[in-house]
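Supplementary notes (optional reading)

For those who missed the lab, this is the record we used. Protein: RNA polymerase ECF-type sigma factor. Length: 180 residues.
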Amino acid sequence: MSLNQLIENCKTNNTKAQGELYKLFSSKLFAVCLKYSRNYAEAEDNLQDAFLTIFKKIDQFKNKGSFEGWLKRITINTVMQRYRNEKVFDIINEDAIEDVEVDIDDDQLSIDYLLQIIQELPDRYRLVFNLYVLDDYSHKEIAEMLKIKIGTSKSNLARARQILKQTIETHKSATSLQSL
């Protein structure tokens, strides 16, 4: 069955087609959820919520653009809605923080370690960092998506980079001390 036929069958609430669609895209969308979630269990919850939204809104997909891109956008928006509902961003009142570049030495840091320290960032920093750095959203788009000010998006990104830089430097120091 073609993807277009699968989508059409999902539009008629065909549960078998929905199961097929889930099997086809769940691993890719779970990776998106994991990137924006605090932990594995929360990512699983976010994936479920995203698929519920996808099946509810699938009739809005008009075969214009990438279906996978449409799924990813719905998934990200579903996760962001959870954080908006939790009022993650209401307590922020930070002055602009100097932007920091994070120097990553590929020989010393594994991708798993990098993903772990990104996931450990406080919600407001992790979400903005992932949207800006990993998914190429602009500060304007992030501000609209999260219902925050552009300046808040910028300061959260700068703070995320600061925290990551400190964590990486601490890790590098500890690693170099162990090798002595």
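If you only remember one thing from this example: The helical segments are 3-11, 15-36, 40-57, 67-85, 111-119, 123-134, 139-146, 150-178.
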